[in-house]
Amino acid sequence: MIETAHFPLLGHKECQTQLKQAFDEGRPHHGLILAGEQGIGKRRLACQIAAWVLSRPQNGSLFGEAHSPEIWEIDARHEEARLVFNQSHPDVKIISSEDEDATKSGQIKVDAIRKLGQFLSQTPARGGWRIAIIDTIDALNRNGANAMLKMLEEPPDNAMIIVLTNSLSGVLPTIKSRCIISRLSALEHSETLSVLNQIWPDGDPQQLSILANLCDGAPGQAQSLQLSGAVELFEQSCAFIATAEYHSDISRKLADSWGATGKQANQRRASARYLFDKLLHASAVSATGISPQQYQLFMSITFVASAISALTARLSANDLARLHTETMKKITLSGRLYLDLAPIMFHFFQEIHSQKHLKSGKNTEHCF
What we know:
This protein is α/β, with parallel strands linked by helices. It has helices at about 15-25, 40-55, 80-85, 110-120, 140-155, 175, 190-200, 205-215, 220-225, 230-240, 250-260, 265-285, 295-300, 300-315, 315-335, 340-350; strands spanning about 30-35, 90-95, 130-135, 160-165, 180-185.
């Protein structure tokens, strides 16, 4: 994740403007939900908001200063902002599914939420606000969500809770009703490329272009894909899918690579779910004769286009739709049960080359 004020924040201007207006009018809210696809910069925006709130002028009236700074134009040299972006501000607490004390499945423990309540109830160390960032509420179980709801029902003075979510539909209605909700959109393609160039200033332009096309306006997703080693694996997988003949040894090697062990297992699994979900869904739609507009950038990648061409030639739209549903269920279940992903991927590669699934007709009605 990018957490430095040295890079300009791209996108999400509507959310920032809304928040600034609320503060300037003296009506800040204690709960804020940032909702949007994974990797579009929600955590980066949350840190930017925290830095902005804590670096606002404290002399005179707390709200409505004539020269309150724009959220996207924070001075990185400001002491409050510097501490926030270095993750060392005593009045900012971030809890994440990536923390060392999170569960094996990447779930935030309920004790972490309860400690967060204690943190918010303390007097601010630097005389301003206390801010908690939860990344993400999707990683909370029912007990954790209820503990957070209690904080929102009885918020301490000058405390703000910024909640991130990849799927607003999964958030409890009682939590949503106590927060201001900002629905964030994916970045424009040009903005995505700009962020990736900030992350890898010496990166190969062609590789950065592939990453931008893979991630659909979510540069954080592109970063995760690259760091997990999934991009190279996906390219190899697409090349294998496009081959006419099935080779068990290649299939096994690829499957074993997707089934990494340790902490990397969760990263590879998430990458596999993201990439093959898009590949199979785009293929199923394409097999009906419809051009899937939402996947145009994804399908412009040469190795992706080759794999989709092979899949639509080999399998009917019905078979692809079924394969898409079943594969996503298996990958998701493997994460919940801590299962090795390798056997699932081996069966997947084996199935898409199986002769019994070759097209027997062009009936593609009622596939979805």
